[in-house]
Amino acid sequence: MRRKNENDNLDVIGEGFDYETFRKEVISGLISGKPLTGESGLLKPLIANFVQGALDAEMENHLTSERGEGLSNRRNGKQSKKIRSESGEVEITYDRDRNGTFEPVTVKKRQHQLGLGFDHQILELYAMSTSISDIQTHLKRMYGAEMSEGRISEVINATWDQVKAWKERSLPALFVVLFIDAVHLKIRRSDGVATVALYVVYGISVEGKREIVALYPGEGAEGAAEWGRCLEELKHRGLEDVLIICSDGLTGLKEVLQQAFPLARIQRCVVHKIRNCFKLIDSKDSKEVLRQLKGVYQAVNEPAARLALEDFARYWKGKYDIIQQMWEKDWDELMASMDLPLVLRKMTYTTNAIENLNREIRRITKTKGAWVSDKALLIQLFLSLERKKKSWNKKVHQWQSITRELTIIFGQRFSKHINN
Q1: Averaged pLDDT, 264-275
Q2: What's the pTM?
């Protein structure tokens, strides 16, 4: 004999449900301090009742529809299954159809999880870098919902298809600017926890829209060879050309960039160059040196910048000759953006744009310790960065005038991609 289920005292809505009696029971329970929701919630008996009522209505609609099409079908016995809800596990009983064509929506075949309505809250909290255990505590305190850490993890991991689609999405044939840099994080590998580079690519499109182009977890510390792999992946996704690539001075990176995108201008970060210079400058001279070097990279054009560097060399002759040599060595890369529109030039002679993004990535990940896998890291970053999408997807100011100047500078190489 089947043991009486707690839901057996309630008939399906419309078939004897005594609302007034149930209402009094709920009010009495609230007065005595019982919760509305949760495992022992007063509303738990209604869950199976409503679900069974919805499934019965779906079945009737399905059979009516098939009869209208001249098909013979009817109810063919009942079956039961247990489903998980925000108030814990409940058992439902529902009809089968003879032809097996009924596909319910309320609780699908082989589905054992009732939509809880908490998925959005879980993802929002996780995007804020809240731990799974803290999410569990929050849901229990705020809503009385009993959810295991395993169930919360299921909700989070269910976003992987969306993350994967973003990670593998097609790219436009041209980006006006790509900023590239790496952030080092701890990720668990087969032989233990390792510090690895996360390769970050941030770009400005032909339409002037900023976007996060790619996030690629590497195998070890940042290296030019790994950057080569990342760039090939971008090409595989459809990228054919880049006008300007902004980077730091990683050994071997220039050659890798030139091989991947031979026509691209490679702009070395001026701020990185100045930081390296200041390692060799006496503190008492730093203010004057900075003023003079600003005169170099903020000059109106490349000839004026050359004159400013020569003035610097004469002023500090015999003391800071090494500084002049450092700038001469990378002169072409430091001057790559000199003829660009002023707004775009100020954006590209430093890697500040991507460093701001990297700062946010560090903030997101700083409390997590070591990531269990690349997949777990990418899910966290996708959800957190998507939450602040407006910060990364702003359009560049004055883009219409920039477009006109880029057309003059790069000609058909740029203009053929407008409005494509």
Answers
A1: 92
A2: 0.74
pLDDT digits (tens, 9 = 90+) for 206-224: 999 999 999 999 988 999 9
- Of the two residues 59 and 311, the one the predictor is more confident about is 311
Question: Tokens representing 96?
Answer: 């089968």
Which sequence spans correspond to the domains of the chain? 1-115, 117-158, 172-414
Question: In the structure encoding, which two tokens stand for residue 267, read together?
Answer: 């702009």
Distances (CA, A) of 215 to 198, 227, 280, 348, 375: 7, 12, 35, 20, 11
- The average pLDDT across 288-306 equals 94
Residue type, 390: K
Burial class (CB in 10 A: 0-12, 13-18, 19+), 296: buried
Per-residue burial over 173-208, b = 16 or more CB atoms within 10 Å of its CB, e = otherwise: ebbbbbbbbbbebebbeeeeebebbbbbbbbbbbeb
Mean pLDDT, rounded, for 53-72 = 87
3 state SS of 120: helix
**Better-predicted residue by pLDDT, 237 or 191:** 237
Q: What is the pLDDT of residue 420?
A: 64
325, exposed or middle or buried, with CB in 10 Å at 0-12, 13-18, 19+?
exposed
Q: What long-range pairs does 32-37 form, CB within 8 A, spacing at least 24?
A: 35/144, 36/144, 37/86, 37/87, 37/143, 37/144, 37/145
Q: Does position 14 have pLDDT exceeding 50, yes or no?
A: no
Q: Which of 112, 16, 104 is nearest to 56 (CA)?
A: 104
Please give the C-alpha separations between residue 9 and each of 25, 28, 138, 282, in angstroms, as whole numbers.
13, 17, 32, 86
Element (H, E) at 58: helix 44-68
Quick: pLDDT tens for 316-327: 999 999 999 999
Residue 141 or residue 267, greater confidence: 267
Residue 165: other Cβ atoms inside 10 A: 9
Tokens of 26: 């709920």
pLDDT digits 0-9 by tens, 101-132: 888 877 778 777 666 567 788 888 888 888 88
SS3 243: strand
Six-digit token string for 388: 């602040």
Can you tell me whether residue 419 is helix, strand or coil? coil
Instruction: Give the DSSP per-residue string, 136-200.
Output: HHHHHHHH-----HHHHHHHHHTTHHHHHHHHT----SEEEEEEEEEEEEEEEETTEEEEEEEEE
- DSSP codes, 349-384: SS-HHHHHHHHHHHHHHTTS-SBS-HHHHHHHHHHH
